[in-house]
Every structure is written in structure tokens, then in C-alpha cells.
Amino acid sequence: MKRVAIVGAGVSGLACAHRLGELAAKAGTAMEISVFDAASRAGGTIASEEKDGFLLEKGPDSFISEKPWAVELSGRLGIGPEILGTEGRYRKTFVVKGGRLLPLPEGFYLVAPLNPVSFLGTPLFSWAGKLRMMSEVWVPRKTGSADESVADFIRRRFGKEALERVGQPMVAGIHSGDPGRLSLSEVLPRFKALEENHGSVIRGLLKSARSKDGHSAKAASGPRYSLFLSYRRGMETLVRALVDRLPGGTLRLGSGIRRISREHRKGAWNLTGQDGGTYPADAVCLACPAHRAADLVEDLSPDVSKKLREIPYESVATVNLAYREEDVAHPLDGFGFVVPAVERKSLVACTFANRKFAGRAPKGFLLLRAFVGGAFGKEFFEMPDGDLQKSVGKDLAALLGIRKDPLFCRISRWRESMAQYRVGHRDRIRRIESLLGDFPGIFLTGSAYRGTGIPDCIHNAEQQAEAVFPLLTKEGNGEVIG
Ligand SMILES: Cc1cc2nc3c(=O)[nH]c(=O)nc-3n(C[C@H](O)[C@H](O)[C@H](O)COP(=O)(O)OP(=O)(O)OC[C@H]3O[C@@H](n4cnc5c(N)ncnc54)[C@H](O)[C@@H]3O)c2cc1C
């Protein structure tokens, strides 16, 4: 019987194992799948906790519906009915300016103003900044297809103020990175395509909004979801459902892997655990962070290892704080806010957790989830718990008019957890994949390569499972060739 080893039981490793199981069941093939994780729990950065009637998300709090793979997988796992959309009446995002929360104007798409009336009325930008942003429609198209940074693109098309006031904090809120180093092709591919195809982001977005209106009747059929989704009992629902589907003995927690070497048998691999144990496998899927994968393949291929280490990571923390409603002056009439780096606060963003999704706090209470760290918040990420709680609590109190200390505070740190897709990322990944061609049976998946969001992680993991499967079955190439 063929053996597959998957290193990492985050959503990527679990989705890969699940898809392999589906394919094996469909083909009637027996296969031994083992999922190793160094941690004592599955899920990686996905972690939910119920406490005193609150539902805390310590890692991700949602996934987007525009990319269908998380919704599709949920359907196959039977947790489709657990999917929870956002609360429509609070669909508003604030941006901090001069210590105040200002709403993003209506019809504002990341940095592109699409509704001139509400845009001209916002105090979020100066008049000079507004004129510069609206003149994006006349900015000439860039020639050549070379990748550029997100910051260069926004500055070139919308001006410096758009970058400082919204571009930087929105990108930091999602990718925790420095837009001056992040790849436009990876982080904002749609904006790149809009410039290429329409000569202007604003013009392209308006055109696609008009054509969507024309098709709205057709689009209304089938289930309709809000942009952000979660599950009634939290994001860990997905992890639990995936784990429940694995045959007993598949998941090996507290079993970190240290290195991978060639087995004497042709085309097979040997995994060495941190406890010194060895595990033979016909195929290995590395679903751990790129810097960990680099350690594992160091002996096998110093070149692959070196390239994997070129993918940098940022460290982030979430700080969940619970309050009584009566102790908070701000109405919290939105999903949350982002904080531009120029405002110099301890937090990068904050979600009003029980406004965004129902059931996150008992009646009469509020749950705030602050996001700390990333490229512009390293010193805050490194603070001891007590100092971090104090800094975040103080900033939240000033911004939201909070009169009392939180009822409780839960800090969750995720060191080197957010892969940074720097300029040239795609070429780097192609190079790694081409080098891996010399090691058939070894695959990479996870948030470091082809998308950091949960739907992308699932999609990539399932694609890798589909690529591994034929190597392990008689219908495919037969023996894995080494
Ligand atoms: C705070 C935070 C908030 C986020 N918010 C969102 C969000 O709202 N929406 C969204 O779509 N995405 C969000 N993301 C991103 C998303 O959560 C991740 O990209 C995704 O969960 C990564 O899954 P993964 O399985 O690839 O990696 P991970 O979750 O990092 O899992 C990797 C696993 O590998 C294991 N491992 C590492 N080394 C070894 C080893 N040597 N041997 C064995 N096991 C090992 C680790 O223990 C870990 O369990 C967020 C991320 C963070 C950190």
C-alpha cells in the first residue's frame, strides 16, 4: 500500500489529506495517509475559543466568498449550513485619522473612489489628495509587464495620500506587510489587470459595476453570500470537520518532522521526526511554513532550501478584549477600523467582532479583536503580555471612548506566520517548483506559495493532492520514479 506523508496539519495539510482520501475512495484505492504536526492541536493558525458566552477568533475570523473553494469544501464536509454571513446593517469600515474614526466613503474600492458625491464629502482626504485620486482616470498606463510594488502602483496611479491614508493600512490589515515591498501581481492582481485592460482602475471598476447591474437578475439565482463568511461556532468548525473525516491514526500531533532524505528504495522518501523516529513515504507533501520546509529539505537540496528561505514572514498577534456595551461610547456601527502607520498606534486594525458576525458576544456585551504586529508593528508584537494589553487597551479607549478596563483580554501570538509575497514572488515560486522537478514525489502547499487566504490555501492543497494521486495509483505512472 502506498504511503503519503503530509507535514503540517493547518488547513492546507488537512485539506490535502481530505482530498487524497476523497480521490482514493472514488478510485477504490487503499492508501495510507499520515499528517504530522509539531503542535499538540490541529488547525495551525485557525483557532477559536468559547469563553463565558463569547466566541474568540485567535487567528483568522473569516474567509472570502469570492473565491469558492472554502464554501465548496464546506458543502462536501456537510458544514454548509454552519456558514455564517456578515451582519448587513454594519457593513462599514472606518479609518483612523488624527485619532478619530472616519468611515470610508460609500462606493470606495480599496483606494478607488467610485461614488464622487460621497467621496468629495469625506474629511478622510485633503482636497489636493481627492483631486489627485480622481485624476487616476487620466494617468497613463504603465508600459511593460514587469512586477512592481503595491506602493509604487498606488502612488503612481492615485497619489501619496491615497497610499498613506488607505492603501497602506488596508494592505497591512490583510497581509501585515509593507506595501513598498509587496508584489502588485500577487496582492492586487485585479488592479494590475484593470490598468492593463482599461487604462484606469476607476474606469474599469465602473464598467464592471455597470455590466454586473445588467446581469443582476441572472446572478440572483443560487445561494447568495456576503463577501466575508465564517461559521456559527467559529472558524475552527472547518478544522474539526476535516479532522473528523480522517481515518483513525492519520493525524499525528506532537510529531514534528526534522528532515527528509532519500530512502534506499527507488523513489521513496524517509522522514525523520524530532523524536528521532523515521517514517518511510512514497510521496511527501510539505504543508508547513516555507522556512520550516526549508529546514526539512536542507540536506536533500540546499538550492530548494535557499529559495524557500527567500520567502519572508511577518509575525502578528490578535488581542481579543471583552467589554460591557454601556462602557463604550462609540456606537461601533461597522465591521471595524484600520490604522494607518502614520498614526503611530499599537494596533494595525480592529474588528468589532460581534457586529461583523452574530453570536460572538452575549447580549449587552462587546467583543473587540485588535490586530498587532506585521511590518510596521514589530516592537508591539515583541512586548510582554501586560505591556501589550496596556498599550492596546489605551489606544482603544482613546479611539472608541471606552471608560472601563476590559472584562478579559486574550493575546494570541503567531510568530512568523504571515508569508510575504514580495515583488518577484511568482518567479521565485516557479523556480522552486522547477528545482523540485528533481525530487518527484515531494510537493509543497500552504500559504507561502499561491495565495495566503483560506480559500486559496484549500484550492492549492486540493490541486497538490490531485497532482500526487496519479503517482500513487496503478492508473497513473505506477512506481514513483526517483
Ligand atoms: C492572525 C491571523 C489572522 C488571519 N486572518 C485571516 C482571515 O481572516 N482570512 C483568511 O482567509 N486568512 C487569514 N489568515 C491567513 C490564514 O489563516 C493562513 O494563511 C492559513 O490558515 C494558513 O494555513 P496553512 O495550513 O498553510 O499554515 P499554518 O496554519 O501555518 O499551518 C502550518 C502547520 O505546520 C506545522 N508545522 C510547522 N513546522 C512543522 C514541522 N517541522 N513538522 C510538523 N509540523 C510542522 C505547524 O505546527 C502548523 O500547524 C490569517 C492569519 C493569521 C496568522
Number of strands: 22
* Alpha-beta content class: alpha+beta
What is the helix fraction of residues, given as a range? 25-40%
- Counting DSSP H or I runs of 4 or more residues, the number of helices is 18
Layout: helices, strands, pairs:
Elements: E1 2-7, H1 11-27, E2 31-36, E3 48-51, E4 54-57, E5 63-64, H2 69-77, E6 83-85, E7 93-97, E8 100-103, E9 108-109, E10 112-113, H3 116-121, H4 127-134, H5 150-158, H6 160-175, H7 184-187, H8 189-198, H9 201-214, H10 216-219, E11 228-231, H11 236-245, E12 251-252, E13 257-262, E14 269-273, E15 278-281, E16 283-286, H12 290-297, H13 302-309, E17 313-324, E18 336-338, E19 349-352, H14 353-356, E20 365-373, H15 378-381, H16 385-400, E21 408-419, H17 425-436, E22 442-444, H18 454-468
Parallel strand pairs: 1-2, 1-16, 2-12, 7-18, 16-22
Antiparallel strand pairs: 3-4, 5-11, 6-11, 7-8, 9-10, 13-14, 14-15, 17-20, 17-21, 18-19, 19-20
Helix pairs in contact: 1-11, 1-18, 2-18, 5-6, 8-9, 12-13, 13-17
The chain binds flavin-adenine dinucleotide.
